[in-house]
């Protein structure tokens, strides 16, 4: 017997020594006690992590959290009586040895939180005593094995955070003793097997963060009477929440957020009396919030934001004594806030933003003395802010923005923990309370666009923790910027734009060492820009335009090496532009226009290699345009118009390959337009008007395929207009007037849309749209061989013309004859050979003119959305039923006009269908809605510059209709935003909306 015991001891020692040999790193020296000496054995009590039974056999090996690196040696299979094996939280790599399946007495196997790869060995099915299996947090691959379904004693199965393939095995339903199933974040797909409903001992299921798992929640899960936790979040589940979930009498936590669940929340959920946490946000749930749900006395968190729930918020919410978190935001709730909210005394988080709530904020909300966050923003709440809120000393965040609140902002009282205060876009009266300076923990103060008046209280300078202040768009707030704001050392963002501020910018602003953004444009600020601003080393954006600032641009600003945007246009700044600006490597936007700067552009501007927008228009700048600007290979917008620049245009500008806007009008530039300008193939706008440029218009401009506007008027240009420019299909504005151009005017493509105003003041030009006809060059000498070639060409042309005429005549004759014999009265006429449409295809495109396809209706027509041949979106304008002579006149008048139109800002007609019973126009489909939507309904936040270009686009289209089609006989009697559709393009230095 002694020999057998000794034999086992030596075998187990050898197995463990082999395991130690497979470990490549042991930084903590855990295995140092595993000695090779003959007197050292695993069961003598000195081997760390090893436990033995009373007869000296190894039964447990626990080396978790040892930072061990290496492989798992198959030799562990020789520990034949092993009951517990825990190697978790190490850096072990390689595969799981299949030999582990021979450890017949193993009860617990934990290899979690390692770097193991490969598939799970099927041999693990032999571990019939296994109760605990944790292989989570590895890099295992392959399918989840079906074999665990043959482990009758398994209670805990954790395989989460691996790289599995395939679906959740239905055989898991055979693990009748299973209590915990964790498969989250493992790249699984398929559906949730209904067989899981057979696991009557189940306590927790977590299948979340498997976006490949779709389908519905099986109703069979409602049979799990002992289930306490169900986690199904961040999956792709669809369908409704089964009513059977109301049978889960032990359920405490249900997380099914971030799915595509729809339908209503089952009323049966009100029977789950033990429910503590219910989180169903980021779904498509609809209907009302069930009253049965909100009377669950154990419920602590109810999180339902970003769904489609509607109706009133039930007043029964006031009975939920245990509720701590209520998130109902981004839904469609209406009505008022329940008056008895004050009874939910444990409430800490109240968020009902972005709904359609109305009425006043209940005064008893101040009784919720444990509140930490209140967010009622983006509703239509009215009335004053309850003064009782000043008593909620625990409040950390208060957001009542984007409502219709009135009255004055109440005194904040004692709110020592308040960090975030957002009251913007309301209809307040009165001034900014000076007592806000007592909120010593305040970090964010947003009061913009709230009809406030008075002055900026100097007490705000006491808010030493402040990070952002936004008081902008309050035109009633006047006075000066308090110098005390310079004490806010942590302040990162200060927004004071579109107010009525006067006086100078305080020098103390230079003390704002953390400031990154300062916006004080559109005020009445005067004086000079303080030199002290050069000390604000973290400043990124400085925007002071539309003020009355004067003096010189401080050289000290060059110290701001983080500065990216410097926007100072429309002030009274003067003297030369400091050459030191050329040292500002981070600068991307420099706007100095509409000031009184003199001198020239610094030669070293080419060193500002990140510069994208350079605008110095309307100053007194002169001298040559620096050739160094050709180094600005990121330049998009360049405007030097309305100055006194002289000399020639530098050829080096052709290196600015990203340039889209080039404006140099109203200067004294001379010489020719460089032919290299054609290399700037991304140009959208060129304006070189009102200079003294000479020579021809470069034919290379035809290479600028994106060109939309070209103004070369009021120069001394000579020669003809290159016919190559007819290739510019995006060109919508052309002005070549007041030059010395000659020859015929091109006629094709966009040139057919321009009026005579584009060419006036050029005595040598002829042809349409001018009234001057082009005379043949009779006196031009022709060489003998050219004369022979000309005669051959003329003769050939005449013969071909006669043959074509005869062919067309025969074709017309047989067409008329065939139509006379046919009962088909559905001819199709298409312009420009674009789309040939039969009556059947027209019906197919609009689903037989289905009501579901209606885009809009008018007094005489209905417009349908259609898809031709399954791939071409069109708008089909169908004249309303009923035939009258007046309707025919209107239809043919519209047809005549649309047939002439070719303009980028007007909807194009693709074709038409005409018969005695039906008249349709097939138009280009514009997908981005109408202008009314972009201006008023869609939260796009259009800037003033975008609105300006929208107006220009509409004006171009209307001007073309009024003055260049039909001899000015077209009237546009009722222009409305709803009648203009939009097409988005990325052009110029920002996203522009072209209205058509």
TrEMBL record:
Residues 849-996 form the Protein kinase domain. It holds the Pfam family LRR_14. The chain crosses the membrane at residues 794-816. It comes from the Eukaryota. GO terms for molecular function: ATP binding; protein serine/threonine kinase activity. One of its GO terms (cellular component) is plasma membrane. It is found in: Cell membrane; Membrane. InterPro entries: Kinase-like_dom_sf, Leu-rich_rpt, Leu-rich_rpt_4, Leu-rich_rpt_typical-subtyp, LRR-RLK, LRR_dom_sf, LRR_N_plant-typ, LRR_R13L4/SHOC2-like. Keywords: Cell membrane, Glycoprotein, Leucine-rich repeat, Membrane, Phosphoprotein, Repeat, Signal, Transmembrane, Transmembrane helix. It is a single-pass membrane protein. PANTHER family: LRR RECEPTOR-LIKE SERINE_THREONINE-PROTEIN KINASE FLS2, RECEPTOR KINASE-LIKE PROTEIN XA21. This is Protein kinase domain-containing protein. It comes from Ceratopteris richardii.
